[in-house]
Specification:
Blueprint: E1 2-4, E2 11-12, H1 14-27, H2 34-37, H3 45-52, H4 57-72, E3 77-78, E4 92-95, H5 100-109, E5 118-120, H6 133-142, E6 150-153, H7 156-165, E7 168-172, E8 183-185
Parallel strand pairs: 1-4, 1-6, 4-5, 6-7, 7-8
Antiparallel strand pairs: 2-3
Helix pairs in contact: 1-4, 3-4
Length: 196
């Protein structure tokens, strides 16, 4: 079974998320630089909000999501190689650090939602990436043990989650290879040829 990360793996959205965080912070009178936000990408939105503004994290995350959906969602595009979803066996899940609501809106907006059987958002589990909890949710939903899952992502958080659950981590090297992936690929189309 394939489990995909969303942002930076299936869709080109990381810059849009960063811009939404910066806008949200400005609403609270806080000015940050892109370089201060970028290393946090891949963590659950609640964790990012806590790191940026601990005293008002919940409010910040809510404002960020609202700004992202109203201003930045139209800028998000699916990567061309996300079309590989048509070729892979079902079920297919998406596990993301974004909120589940935002992730579902992204998948609908870019035309990928009909290939995805389950979305698990970072706000829908006790602990998000890099903890293995999201994969345990997928396992329960489909009766597939984590050891039979191939987790495809673009960050160390994705690979750490896969390793913690006993799944196979495959890193899509969009910008740079992940630290812990069992395999590194440069196009999602390589998944159709991999024997894992």
């Amino acid at each position: 079974m394939y489990v995909f990360d969303l942002d930076g793996t299936l869709v080109d959205s990381v810059e849009a998320h960063i811009a939404a965080w910066l806008d949200a912070l400005r609403n609270f009178g806080v000015v940050k630089r892109v370089e201060e936000i970028r290393p946090l990408m891949g963590l659950p939105a609640a964790e990012i909000a806590k790191a940026l503004m601990p005293s008002r994290a919940r409010e910040l995350a809510a404002v960020k999501n609202e700004i992202f959906l109203s201003k930045y969602l139209p800028l998000v595009k699916a990567y061309d190689d996300a079309a590989v979803l048509k070729l892979l066996p079902r079920p297919i899940a998406v596990v993301t650090s974004s909120s589940g609501h935002v992730a579902r809106r992204i998948l609908q907006a870019v035309g990928l939602s009909h290939y995805i059987d389950l979305v698990v958002g970072g706000d829908e589990v006790p602990k998000g990436k890099p903890a293995p909890d999201p994969l345990y949710v997928v396992s329960r939903e489909f009766g597939v043990p984590p050891g039979a899952m191939v987790v495809v992502g673009d960050s160390d958080y994705d690979m750490d989650m896969a390793e913690a659950a006993g799944a196979v981590g495959v890193c899509i090297a969009r910008r740079a290879p992940c630290r812990g992936g069992r395999r590194v690929i440069h196009s999602l189309y390589e998944l159709a040829e991999l024997s894992l």
